[in-house]
Amino acid sequence: SMNPMLGKRIKELTGHDVIIVPAAVGNTFISAWQREENALYTRAKQMWQEAINYCNAHNITIANKYAHWLQGENDAGGTETDGYYVMLNELVDDLVSDMGVEKVFATRIGYDPNYTSSPISEKIMKAQKILNFNHPHFILSSIAPPTFTYANGKMAGDLTHHTLLGLNQIGEEVAAAIQLHRSTGGKPSFTENVAS
After folding, report:
1. What is the rounded distance in angstroms from the CA atom of residue 23 to the CA atom of residue 11?
2. At residue 120, does pLDDT exceed 60?
3. pLDDT tens by residue, 81-94
């Protein structure tokens, strides 16, 4: 999990205590997280509200409410760019309007080993980068960079999933994106070549 490093770095960068609501469910498609009559969305919303209720009951002031979307490889190759874009756009809108989230930070995780040329991975990356450009509440905070390899210990042997070392780096990158937003209102820029 990247959450321990994420919480640690946010605390170091902002000085604020961090409460993380771990609502993630592995091996799920983005369609499983749509709001309409969906158990995963409902479960996440309940967990989110319970955390807010806890803070209220213990006189804990909530400075900011952010969500982090960590997903990608399940839809790679099975979802076209426009379809993924529509579903992610709807999810961000729902998290903001229905749950009161201020910003949705996102990390695209798993990818095809032929990252720089594979259209399978590029479809998801392209959708997220376009939404990052178009949606004021969506911030692409970290990507699955081609510098993550099995040899340097940041990729698992399947060459799709990150190891703890890789996840820790992503936690640091997401925390940096949160601090960038808090201090400047800006979004990180990425140099890798994904057409949008």
Report:
1. 20
2. no
3. 788 899 999 999 99
3-state SS, one letter per residue, for 24-93: CCCCCCHHHHCCCCCHHHHHHHHHHHHHHHHHHHCCCCCCCCEEEEEECCCCCCCCCHHHHHHHHHHHHH
Residues whose CB falls within 8 Å of the CB of residue 74, separated by 6 or more in sequence, listed in order: 27, 28, 29, 30, 110
pLDDT in tens, 131-177: 999 999 999 987 766 678 889 999 888 777 789 999 999 999 999 99
Asked if 176 and 188 count as a contact pair (C-beta separation under 8 A), the reply is yes
pTM to 2 decimal places:
0.88
Q: Are 183 and 152 in contact (CB under 8 A)?
A: no
Cα(81)–Cα(119) distance, integer angstroms: 10
